[in-house]
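for ur thesis appendix - APO domain-containing protein. copy paste whatever u need, i formatted it the way the template wanted (i think)
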Amino acid sequence: MAVTAIVASSFPSSQHLISSSSSSCPHRASKVRTPLLQSSRGSIATSSSSSFVGEKLFLAGGVNQSRRECSLWRNLIFVPPKAVSELDDSEACLDSTPGEVFGYASPEPRHSSAARKYDRHPQNVDLPPVLPKKKKKPYPIPIHKVQRSARIDKKLAQMGVEKHLEPPKNGLLVPELIPVAYQTLESWKVLIEGLAQLLTVVPVYGCRECPEVYVGSAGHLIQDCSGPQNVKRRSRHVWVRGTINDVLIPIEAYHLFDPFGHRIKHETRFNYERIPAVVELCIQAGVELPQYPSRRRSIPVRMLGKKVIDRGGFVEEPKPCRSQDAMALLSEIDTYAVLNGQFISPPADTRKAAERTLKAYSTVRSGVRQLMKKYTVKACGYCSEVHVGPWGHNAKLCGAFKHQWRDGKHGWQDATIDEVIPPNFVWHLKDPQGPPPSGALKRFYGKAPAVVEVCVQAGAEIPDAYRPMMRLDIVVPEAEEARLVA
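the 3d part is after this line
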C-alpha cells in the first residue's frame, strides 16, 4: 500500500480537530481520530514536519462539514510520497509553524506472479538496433539535465562558490571499489586466456570487408555486407578465419599517470601508451601495476566551475618498469600474445573452460558497470574512441561522420557499458552442425554476444539474461514453409 502524507499547517486550536499530546515535543501529533478525519479514509500519523514543500490541496468539496472546517482544508499541503513511518523524532517537531501530518493509504495495482516473472525474463526481445553512422550517438544522460547541471555550476562559479566534489571526482579513491577493481582485472585475464583456448576448438569467421562475425563451421549465407563494393558482390560476405579480436573487440584508451594533470594534445599523443580501457579503468580505481604507475592523492582536488584551482601541483611521471616479469604481465592483460602466434594448447575440459570463461565475462561486465557509476569514462559520439578520465583528450583522430567540420576532434559524452565492452552480437544457431543461416529465414534467428556464443557452442549453459534475444522457443521452419508463416 502506498502512503501519501498531507501536512495541515496553521490549524487553530480546536477540540473538534486535534488534541495535542503533552510530551517533550509540543507539536507532536496525537493519535486520536477526529470527526473531520473520520469522514476520510485515513488516520492521524504520529509525526509531522514543516520541512516538506508541496502544493496546496483544496479538498472542501469532498467533505460534508461546516464552512469553518472546510476552510481549514484549504491549508492542507500535499507532501511528496514518503512513508509516515519513516519520519523520525527530529522530523516530528515543527520548526516554525505548528502543523500535523495525516496519512491515508491508496491501493496499488497488484501484479500477478506470472506478470512479474515475465518482466524479469521476457520470452523474446527485439534484436539490438544498428545505429546509423551518419548521426551522432544518443546521449546516455538527457541533454537538458546536462545543461541544467552546467548552469548550476556556472552560477556557483560566478558567486565564487567552489564546486562540491565527492570521491572519486576530487581525485581520491573510493575504498569500497578497490576490491571490485582487482576482481575485475583478474576476471579480465581469465577471459582472455579462456577465449584463446576456446578458439582452438570453436571456429570463428569474420568478413574481410565489414565487421560481421559468425561463430560456426562456415560463414552464414545472409546477404547483409555493408563493406566497400558490396553491390558487385550482391552484399555477400567474404569470410576469413577470425581471431580473438573479432570476438572480444579491443577498445583501448590512453594511460594517464594523473587524470587531473596535463591534458593530452595532438602533438603529445605519442608520449602516452595505449592499453585496454578496462585495464585503465581498474588502474584509476586503485589497482597497482608497476608497468603503469598512477598518482594517488591524499588531498582532494578543488574546482571552481570548470576550472581546477588546486590540483596539488604537477608531479613528474616516473618511468614504467620494463623487466621481464613486467612484459609477461602485459601479455596477460592484452590480446598481444594471442595475436603474435604464441602457441596455445586446447583446454583439457572444454565444458569447464567454457563455463569459467562465461563466468569471467559476466564478472567483468558487472565490475565495469559498478566502476563506471563512480569513475568518469568518456566516449566519442561519432566513433569508438574511449577515454578514462574527468574529461576527454584533444587528439584529433576522429575520422567519423563530418570530422572535417570538427577538425578531427572527438565529440565527447558520457560512455556506456557497451562502448567500453562492446557485446558484438552474432547470429545464434541452435544446431552448430546444421545448415548455416540463410537470408530467407533471417527473422526466425536470434542473436547473442560473440563471447557468449563461443562459450555456448563449447558446452556452457545458456545464461538466463541472453535467452530472450536468442529466441530459443522459436522453431525455424524449412525454406518452403517460411512463406506460410504469418
